[in-house]
Amino acid sequence: GFRFITIILKNLGCRFVLCASGDLVKVYSTRTEEWLHSLQGHTNQVTGITLNPANHLQVYSCSVDGTVKLWDFIDGILIKTFVIGLHETVEIFLSSGLCVSACPECFQLVSVHLPKSAEQEVEAKEMSAVSSHISKNPSCTAFGRGGEYIAFARHLQLNVYFFRKQKTYSFSLKATDKKGAKNAFTCIACHPTDDCIATGHEDGKIRLWRNFIHKKEYTYSTQHWHHNAVNTLCFTPEGTHLLSGGIESVLVQWQYGADNRKEFLPRLGGSILHISASSDGQLFCTSHSDNKITVIESSFKVCGVIQGLVKDAVLTDLMIDPRSKALVLNGKPGHLQFYSLLRDKHLYNLDIVQQEYIYEAGLDQFEVVKAAFDIKGSWLATVEERGKKSSDLEFFLKLWAFDERTQSFVLNTTITAAHTDRIISMCFSSSEETTMLVTAAEDSQFKAWCQGADADTQQDQNFWSCDFVGSYHKLNPTNCSFSADSSLLAVSFQEVITIWSPDTWEMLTTLCQPPGVIRDLCFGRLSCSKYLLGTTTKNLLCCWNLLTCELEWSTSVDVSKLQPDPFSENVAAFSYQSKHTDLFVFKPSEPRPLFTNKNVCSEKVHRAVFVPREEPLNSCDESTQWLNRSQLYFLTQNMDLLTFSTATEEDRMLSSSKQLVIDDSVAVTPFYLLLGKHRQQQQKLNTQSHPVADKPQQPQGSLLHTPAHVLPAASVLCSMFVNSFLISNTGVQQDPLRYFVHIRLKSNGFSYSVMHLLSISLKFLNSFI
After folding, report:
1. Do 248 and 359 meet the contact criterion of CB atoms below 8 Å apart?
2. Is residue 618 packed enough to be buried (19+ CB in 10 Å), middle (13-18) or exposed (0-12)?
3. How far apart are CA 544 and CA 551, in angstroms?
4. CA 190, CA 240: separation in Å to the nearest integer?
5. Which long-range CB contacts under 8 A does 730-737 form with residues at least 24 apart?
6. What is d(CA 285, CA 288) in angstroms, rounded to the nearest whole number?
7. How far apart are CA 380 and CA 324, in angstroms?
8. Going along 578-638, which residue ranges are E strands?
9. Neighbour count for residue 453 (Cβ, 10 Å)
10. What is the rounded end-to-end Cα distance, in angstroms, of the chain?
11. Each residue of 413-446: b (16+ CB within 10 Å) or e?
12. Which pLDDT tens digit goes with each residue over 686-745?
C-alpha cells in the first residue's frame, strides 16, 4: 500500500526535490516534475529528512520505526542505518555530525552522536537531553550559525541553547498584547550568518530577535502582513531575504534589513505548510495542505508543480474513469481530481463549482459531495452543496458530457431544484444503449433523469430532464443501485428494499426481512447477478435471491463498506471492530470468504474501489486469485490510500525501481524519443552481430560533463567521432542521422584531411555547449 502525507521538503541545487511520503522518501526532478525513484527501507512513517552537512549528495531520514538512515539519494542506495534508543523519532536536525531528534513520548529534544563505523547498521548509544517539553510542531525548532546554537519555542516561550556553553537562554511573551493579538509561537527560522532568529506567531506577526546572547539586552522588531497564523519561515542561503507562508496561500518575501519591504506570490493553492530554498538560492519550494509542491524561481515565478493525491476531506466515493482508468475523487476545493494510479501521478483537476474559493476558516462555501460516471465514461453527474442545516441548504445537480476535442468534461445541464432536500445517493444505469441517472433524496423521493425526446416537440434534446418520480409510503430513501444489465433498480427506504422495472416503472416486489436501516446496497455480477446484497445498521450482512425473492443467507457482521467488483463475482466487505478493520472477500453464491485479512488498518474504511487491470494476472495461489482481474484500493479516515498486491507485482515494481533514470538535463523531445528508440534497436542488432570483444572501447559518459584532464587525446576522440558517421558494410540498416551526415560529406565532393575533420568535430561539439 501507499499513502500521501503532508510533505516535508529538502532540495539540492536546482535538480532534485526530496519529500517524505508514508514510509518512503520520494525523489522528484525540478525540471521535468517527474518522480525519479524512492528511498525505501523504513518500516513505518518517515517523519523528517535533512541533507548531510558534510556531503550534499547524501540525505538523512528519520522514522517512527526508531531509526535514522543515511542515503545516497542520487542512486537510491542505503548507506547506513543508525538505531536510536528512542521508540519513535519525530523530527531530525543535523549539524556537524550532531543529530538532534525529538521524542514524542514527552517531546524531549535529545542530542544524539552518530558514531563512525564500517558496519551498515550501528546503534547510537551516546545521547544527552537538551530540553524537555518542546513543541510538537517541528517548525518550532531550528539550528543557527552553522550549528552553534539551536532555537526552539513552545507556547509563549523562546529558548536558545548554545552547545559550547551548554546553556539555555529563555525569552517570554505575554499571552496577548495591548491590541489583543495572540502571541503564541508557530514557527522559527535562524539567519545563516547573523545572530538573528525569526519567529512566526498565531496573530500573523513575524518577530526578528537579536542580541539574544545577552539575556537582559535582547531586542526584537515586528513585521506584519499575514491575517492568520504564520505556518512556516525560511531564510535564503545568503540571508538577504526571509520567506513566509500561511493559510492565505501567498508566498511573502521580506527583504532582510529593510523594514516592511516585501514581494508577494499569490494564489498558490492550499495553505503553505513548509518552505525550502536550494543551496544556490535559485529555486524555492513550497509544500501545501493539498499535497502539492510548487517550484518557484528566485525571480518569483512558478516554474513547476508536483501534485500528489490531494489530502482533503473525501465526500464523494472513490471512482474510476472508464476512459482514462484514473482514480477520481474530491480534489482541491470545488474540484474533482483525476489521478493515475499506474503512474502515481496527478493528471488534472475538473472545476465543478466554478467559483473562486476563499481560503478562510468558517466560510460556508460550495463543496462537491456526490459524483458518478456512466458505464462508457461519456457522462459525469455531480452534486454540489453548501449549508449545514436543512433551512440553509443550497445544492445543484450537474450533468457533464465528455468532449472528444478537448478530452475533458464540459457542463451540459444544471438542475437547480432536482429535489427539495439533500441528495444522499445516485447511480447511472449499466446499459450501453440508453443512459439513465437515478437520484434519491431526503424528500422521500427518488427521481429518474433521461436524455431523449421532448414530450411536446418530439425532438431529440441535448439536455437532461426528469422522466419518473417514485416513492414508498413517504419513507426517506437511503440507497439506490442498478443491476448489471440495468433491467432492475433497487431503492432502499429505511428498512424496506423496493425492486423496480426501469422500462415500465412498475414496483415488482419489496424485501423487508432484515431488522435495521439499509446502509449499503449492491447487485451481484456475472454468474451471481441474481443476488442482491445489503448491510444494515443492526450489523447484518444479507443476501437475497431475486429469482425466489427470499433471503438466501445472512450473517452478523458490522460492515462499514460493501464494495462489489464489476469485473468478477467477488465482493469486498470491510468490518470495523475492536479498534481495527478486517477485510472479507466473498462471492454472493457462497457465504464462505475467499480471502480474509485481519487488522488491515486501525481506522474505519468508508471508501473503496476495484481498479481494472490492463492485463489479467495468472495467479496460481488461491488466496490471491481474487486480484487477477482487478486491484482493490481503499481509503482510511486518516486519508491513507492502501491497496493489495501480489508477490509477482512486488517483484516487478522492485525491478522497475532499479532501472536507470535518464538524466533530466536531456530534453525529452519527440525527435529525441524517435532517434533514441532507433539507436537502442541498432545497438541491440550490433551487439548480436559483433562479439563484445571485437568492438572498440567507447568513452563512457558525456564529453561535456567529463573533466578535461581525464579525457583521451583529441586525435583519438576525432577518429572515434568520424568513425561513428561511417556506414557499416554488414548490410544492417544504419541510423538515419548517421546516413544523412555521411551522404552530405560525400556529395560535396571535397577531400578532407584529418585536421579538417578535427576542426569540424570540435565545431560540432561546441554547438551543444
Report:
1. yes
2. exposed
3. 4
4. 12
5. 730/689, 732/682, 732/685, 732/686, 732/689, 734/682, 735/675, 735/678, 735/679, 735/682, 736/675, 736/678, 737/675
6. 10
7. 14
8. 580-587, 590-601, 605-612, 630-636
9. 11
10. 45
11. bebeebbeebbbbbbbbbbeeebbbbbbbbbbbb
12. 555 454 444 434 434 445 555 565 566 666 667 767 776 676 555 444 443 333 333 333
Count of positions (residues) in the chain? 769
pLDDT at 754 over 80: no
Place of cell 444503449: 433
Q: One-letter amino acid identity for 596? A: T
Per DSSP, the three-state class of 95 is: strand
What is the rounded CA–CA span in Å between residue 702 and residue 665? 12
Quote the CA–CA distance of 562 and 610 in Å, as a whole number.
Answer: 11
Question: How do 230-235 and 241-246 pair as beta strands?
Answer: antiparallel
H or E element, residue 647:
helix 647-657
3-state secondary structure (DSSP) of residue 159 = strand
Residue 178 burial (10 A CB sphere; 0-12, 13-18, 19+): exposed
> Among positive and negative, which fits the CA dihedral 548, 549, 551, 557?
positive
As given in the structure block, the three cell numbers for residue 377 are 465514461
Q: Please state, in angstroms and rounded to a whole number, the distance separating the CA atoms of residues 336 and 315.
A: 11
Residue 51 contacts residue 36 (beta carbons within 8 Å): no
Span 365-384, pLDDT tens digits: 899 999 999 999 999 999 99
Write down the residue that cell numbers 506570490 correspond to.
Answer: 265
Q: What is the DSSP letter of 353?
A: S
